[in-house]
TrEMBL record:
Protein name: Uncharacterized protein
Highest taxon listed in the record's lineage: Bacteria
Amino acid sequence: MSDALTLDDLAVPLRVLRLLAADFGHLSAPSVQVSTVYPERLELTFYDDLPGFEAWREALGIAPDTVTYREQSDGLTRVLRTTVDYAGAAVRLTGYADIVAPVLVGGAA
């Protein structure tokens, strides 16, 4: 991170965001982040919308085997993540979803 960065230093991910909005405006809207910490990265985050994550993954041509899976919050939340280079920026997709606990039938434990 640098205090000397200007808005021009974030031009690449901002241009990619503009391209994505034009080309994929019909897809689910993610939470969008551009940061001075990673000035070449555009982050698209999906909360409780794994189908949206998957639609974006397919639209960007990202292979399914590049998606990582992990759990957080003591196994209550699943996290999918992948990154692809797109028009000069690193585009990171992250999807979060609750893990539904199984329902026990007949009091079985």
